Amino acid sequence: MRRAFVGVSGWRYPRWRGDFYPKGLRQKDELTYAADRMTSVEINGSFYSLQRPSSYAAWREATPEDFVFAVKGGRYITHLKQLHDVETPLANFFASGVLALGAKLGPVLWQLPARMPLSPDRLERFLAFLPRSHADAAKLAAQHDDKLAEDRVATEALVDAPIRHALEPRHESFDTPQARALLAEHDICTVVADSAGTWPRMHDATSDFRYVRLHGETELYASGYTDDSLDRWAAQVRRWLDGGHDTYVYFDNDAKGHAPHDAERLLDRLLDTGHD
């Protein structure tokens, strides 16, 4: 049975304290609190810097057994290197503790900068490097360089499972048959991103699962979603599930604290119809 994984992009936001998070809740307990009310969370600290294996292990232990994490790939790879010469940075990324999530590792998200147009050869080289299983990721992680101290390395595959990848391009050149065919050939999910019109919204499926990022309905990162809009998203998620596709939805409209409340509201709609 296919599942909908619904949550937020990141969970440590001061604006949420005393609002979504009860007053007085310890910061160390915020993930557990969120995980009791959602089915997934997108780790976005990994985008800004390499995290520690101990952090990934702690996040795994702080969440329910059936909880799933998406992990956002590092901006050093996507924004600074822009996918050029990234084999060692990819090894460092996967060696930094991602595998410590074990069975709770969901898709890995690669968000590209809006200034980056499609370069088919460059993209194809990058996609060919991506590990497609925990075992492949462990082999890649073992090639990390000395930028990672030994106490910040985890290269063991804890489970025998595939790894999915999703790409969120933000340049219109990716909204083309050529780009879609390339992503489909490599079984990479194209992210459906709702960004209040800031970046193109790409709809075409290029993998067997769906990945949605909701950045704000009318104001990027700031506005909430109306009941009517959430009804439409719930209906779309149900269609994907009925079509046999696991679906991951993350609210990134965190600036004014809407994200966790919108995630709960979407989950309520899905639970009311027997989808979760």
From TrEMBL:
Domain of life: Bacteria
Pfam families, per database record: DUF72 (PF01904)
UniProt cross-references to InterPro entries, sorted A to Z: DUF72, UPF0759_sf
Name of the protein this chain belongs to: DUF72 domain-containing protein
